[in-house]
Design brief:
- The chain has 191 residues and is an all-beta fold.
- The chain is 3% helix and 56% strand.
- It is built from one helix and 21 strands.
- The longest helix has 5 residues.
- It is globular and about 60 Å long.
Length: 191
């Protein structure tokens, strides 16, 4: 879907349904409706444009893949609902807002990277050891909740002294919390 046009849904069904394994790409324009885009095994790529919904904006019912690399997704409920083992990548300039920006119900993997911005709760399944939310960059303005395995990374330098730069990882697996710190050189940091 390209351009500046608008697709308007008028009932409780998804505005766009990707029933096969094809790719649906949103490059511009606007999608408005009670529900937005739904897939089971296909690929959904949002590169630009706007999706505004009351219920989910993007729903992945099974093994599908969702890529939000740009554009704005807004919902009054779950903006992105990953229901099974599928994957969701939010990066680039993607902007996702909802009561739950992302809901990962089962064993899927959610990755937030680069300059992506999520506003609202990021929630995962407490029941699945394989379900993950990985935050490699970007901004999550809201609570990260219910994630069985969670890892956060940061690079630290103290008192503007670049002779001591550390790469830190803080992780959580169930109720167990763990930390790791490794020193890196200025050259490694600049890579």
């Amino acid at each position: 879907i390209k351009g500046e046009g608008t697709i308007q849904g008028n009932d409780s069904k998804a505005v766009i349904v990707n029933a096969g394994t094809d790719t649906v790409a949103i490059v511009g324009g606007q999608i408005n409706g009670y529900k937005g885009i739904s897939t089971e095994r296909g690929i959904i790529k949002v590169l630009g444009g706007t999706i505004n919904t009351t219920d989910y904006a993007i729903y992945n019912g099974s093994t599908g893949e969702i890529y939000v690399l740009g554009g704005t997704i807004t919902s009054q409920d779950n903006s992105i609902h990953n229901n099974s083992t599928g994957s969701v990548v939010i990066s680039g300039t993607g902007n996702v807002t909802g009561v739950k920006a992302v809901f990962n119900k089962d064993a899927g993997i959610i990755t937030v990277a680069e300059n992506a911005k999520l506003t609202g709760t990021v929630e995962g399944s407490k029941m699945s050891e394989t379900g993950k939310v990985i935050v490699k960059g970007g901004t999550v303005d809201g609570k990260i909740d219910g994630i069985y395995i969670r890892e956060k990374y940061r690079i630290r330098c103290y008192n503007c002294d670049d002779s001591y730069i550390s790469l830190e990882m803080k992780g959580k697996k169930g109720d167990l919390t763990y930390k790791r710190r490794d020193l890196i050189s200025k050259e490694e940091y600049l890579l």
